[in-house]
Structure formats: C-alpha cells, structure tokens
Specification:
Largest sheet: 8 strands, parallel, barrel
Structural class: alpha/beta
CATH superfamily of the largest domain: Phosphoenolpyruvate-binding domains
CATH architecture of the largest domain: Alpha-Beta Barrel
Helix content: 40-55%
Distance between the termini: 13 Å
Oligomer: single chain
Shape: globular
CATH class of the largest domain: Alpha Beta
Bound molecules: coenzyme A, magnesium ion
Number of domains: 2
Strand order of the largest sheet: 1-2-3-4-5-6-7-8
Radius of gyration: 20 Å
C-alpha cells in the first residue's frame, strides 16, 4: 500500500502492561494500534511492559492494522533499551516522545540503525520548543525513517500551563502549523487524544475539528472512540461521488489539456483532480477493509 492511500483514521493507544487491552485491540476496528511504554505505564512496570509489547508482536494477530510501540525518551533511564528492543521487534513503527529539534530526530534515527529497513519512525509533537522547530524536524523525513507525527496535546497543555478545553482555542495555531509542516515534507499527521472518553458528543466535535484542520486521523484512548473516529475521517458518500465526477469529467475528450473545467455547476481545477484521486484511493482502500 502506498503512503497516500493507507487509511490512518484511528490510532488507539493502550498501555503495553495491560494484557487484556492488547488482546482486545486485535479485535477492534482501529487502523493503528500504539502499544505504549511511556506515559501510560508506571515506572515499576516499564521493563515488563517492554517485554509484553515485543511478545505481542511476535504473537501477531493484528491483521492489517499498523502496530507501533511508543518508547520512553532517550533522555530517560528506559529509552535506549526500549529503542533496542523495538528495533529488534516486528513493530511497523516506533513512536518517540517529546522531539524538540532536528537533532532529536537524528538521535532516534541513529538508535534505529539496526532496525529492519521498513520500520518507520513516528514522533510526538508535544513540547513548546518542538513547536518552533516543526519545519526543521519535518524536513528530516527526506533522509530518515520519519513518516508520521502524532500531536501530544496533553503534554503541550502541561508545558504551556494552558487549559485543554473542548474547543482547544489555545492550541489551534500549533495544530495548523504542525499540519502545514507535515504536509510540506510529505509526512502523515494524527491529532491528539480527547480525554473525555465517556462523552462521545465532545469526542465527535473534536474529531471533526481535527478533520477540518487537515489531520489524517486522531489518536484515541478508549475503544468507544474508534467507530465515531473512523466515521469522521472516512470520506463521505457525497465526497466520493463528487470526486468520481471530477475524475470522469477531466477524462472527457473535450476537457483534454484543460486546467479548469465545470463539473456539476462548480469549478474544478487540476488541483481538485489530484485531491479527487487521493480521496477515491482512500475510500477504495477503506471499502476493501
Ligand atoms: N485499548 C484496548 N482496550 C481498552 C482500552 C484501550 N485503550 N481502554 C479500555 N479498554 C478495554 C478495557 O480493558 C475493558 O475491557 P473488558 O470489557 O474486556 O473488561 C473495556 O475496554 C472497557 O473499559 P472501561 O471500563 O470503559 O475503561 P477503564 O475505566 O477500564 O479504562 C482508561 C479507562 C482511560 C484507563 C483506559 O481506557 C486506558 O488505559 N486507555 C489508554 C491510556 C493510554 O494508553 N494513554 C497513553 C496515551 S494518552
Ligand atoms: Mg506525552
């Protein structure tokens, strides 16, 4: 599957120390599963969680889902051992926390020197200094494993001493800047988590805000959030129908060589054709399950 059409609507975190949650994740419709060794795991359980995450991947059973392991930072006592264990595991990606500069990306890249070529490096955007290094960090995607970012809005709120309200007003500039930096360098980007896992109306509004901002999908903390998240981030039937109409119209002989045409009473340009092709590819991949 190419980078462009792989659906990344929903990414469910779970503590790798929670065997029950791991078993459950194999049956849930999340596009991505993130086995966490970091914030969701208490210090005393870190070493055991690391072994459990590697063992879960050896055991398999995750189907077509991408599975990532979130490591502790290299500046913690567990980081280097986490990276070494993940590099030797069957994970699709390692998610690293609190990156704040291009040299941080390079440090993680070096720590993965012995990992399989296909293993991706994903990074959390969750520090105040990281916000000012977005472009420089994303630019490292050109010659590293870096391929995806995840917003860490809880850590950003903590560092900024800002309030993480449902409208997320204090964070909106960072969300747009992060999406723009990711797109500038061709990497995917997932929105932060919604802590309100019992209130799916709040969740849905936040997911829709993330869609509006251009995120590929959203990171999640609870199984109940998966269905509404997949719904929000799947192309709607109307969107797919419009995209097909644009593709068909541009294929007509009378429109050959044109940059802008009329489709169902609206203007469509070649840029819309690109968007339409991507949308149809994503929709077809989702439909194929
Ligand atoms: N992944 C997989 N399964 C999960 C899950 C998750 N993230 N969160 C809950 N479940 C399971 C529970 O094990 C339980 O399974 P069961 O019915 O077989 O017993 C079921 O879903 C219902 O859980 P519920 O009682 O509603 O939640 P809880 O009170 O047990 O747990 C949290 C609430 C927030 C502690 C839990 O959802 C969690 O640990 N989430 C992930 C936290 C995390 O990884 N954070 C790091 C990134 S921010
Ligand atoms: Mg964090």
């Amino acid at each position: 599957m190419t980078k462009i059409d792989r659906p990344r609507r929903s990414a469910l975190y779970l503590p790798a120390s929670n065997a029950k949650a791991i078993a459950k994740a194999r049956t849930l419709p999340a596009d991505i599963v993130i086995l966490d060794l970091e914030d969701a795991v208490a210090p005393d359980a870190k070493v055991e969680a690391r072994a459990a995450a590697v063992a879960a991947l050896d055991e398999g059973g995750f189907g077509g889902r991408e599975v990532a392991i979130r490591a502790n930072g290299l500046d913690t006592e567990w980081g280097a051992d986490d990276l070494a264990a993940i590099a030797g595991s069957k994970a699709d990606a390692v998610l690293v926390p609190k990156v704040s500069s291009a040299s941080d990306i390079d440090r993680y890249q070096s720590a993965l020197a012995d990992a399989p070529a296909a293993m991706q490096l994903w990074a959390m955007i969750e520090t105040c200094s990281g916000v000012f290094a977005l472009d420089a960090m994303a630019a490292r995607a050109a010659d590293t494993r870096l391929s995806l970012w995840v917003m860490g809005t809880n850590d950003l709120a903590k560092e900024m001493r800002a309030r993480l309200t449902p409208d997320r007003t204090p964070f909106l500039p960072f969300l747009s800047m992060a999406v723009a930096a990711a797109r500038a360098h061709g990497i995917a980007i997932l929105d932060g988590v919604c802590n309100e896992f019992r209130d799916l109306d709040i969740f849905r509004a936040e997911a829709e805000q993330g869609l509006l901002f251009g995120f590929d999908g959203k990171s999640l903390i609870h199984p109940a959030q998966i269905d509404p998240c997949n719904e929000v981030f799947s192309p709607s039937e109307a969107d797919v129908a419009w995209a097909r109409a644009v593709i068909e119209a541009f294929a007509l002989p009378e429109n050959a060589g044109k940059g802008a045409i009329r489709v169902e009473g609206k203007m469509a340009e070649l840029l819309h054709l690109d968007q339409a092709r991507r949308l149809v590819a994503v929709a077809e991949t989702i439909a194929a399950g």
